[in-house]
Structure formats: C-alpha cells, structure tokens
Design a protein that fits this description.
Layout: E1 2-6, H1 13-19, E2 23-27, E3 32-38, E4 46-53, E5 57-65, E6 79-80, H2 84-102, H3 113-118
Antiparallel strand pairs: 1-5, 2-3, 3-4, 4-5, 5-6
Length: 119
Amino acid sequence: MKLAFQKPLPDNSRNLIRRLGYAEHRDPHAREISYVRRLRTDFYPRFHVYLEETENALMVNLHLDMKKPSYAGTSAHSGEYDGQLVEQEAGRLRAGVAAYQATPPEEPKKKGLWSKIFG
C-alpha cells in the first residue's frame, strides 16, 4: 500500500518514521535502508516500509511481511500489500503524521550547569 504525506513535514523522514515506532533495517543484499515494526516479539510478522522523498511529498510503501524469504539468495517473501492489518497500520501512520504536524515545535531546552561547563 502506498501512502503520500504532503510536505512540509514536522521532521525529516527518518526521524518521523522512527517516532511512529519503526526501527531502521539495513539489508546487506538490497543495499537500501528500510524500516520495520514488529507485531510481536518474533522477527516476523512485521510491518515493513520503504521511504521515497519527492519535492512535494514523502511516499511510504507499506506492506506486511508474514515470514522470511523461503529460498536462499531470493528476496521473495510472503508479503501482504492490502488487507485489514495493513489498512489499520496505514490509518495509524496517517493519524501519527497528522498529530506531529499539528504539534507546535518545541522550544530549545535550557542548558544546566554541567552542560555549560562541558558542553
């Protein structure tokens, strides 16, 4: 499922997706960075997103990985690109981005004594 979030966004794409509960995933075979969010303590099933930035929007390609690839050397997996769970996660992402866009930016925190001495 593809989602588009219009810019400007409250933060860069990496920080935004991490605030929404996703962890960075570096696949040495694909040589690209993606982000995953587990449904349970096991590595699978998990939500998996790829981010693509355009001039006006952040494109999020969301799917649900049900299990790891079946054959060595392949990237094919049992992934779902639609369905109830994917729809719910898409709604959660939309709501999360909207909430961050509605939140005013935080003021810089005052530095304490130790930060003034060592920072």
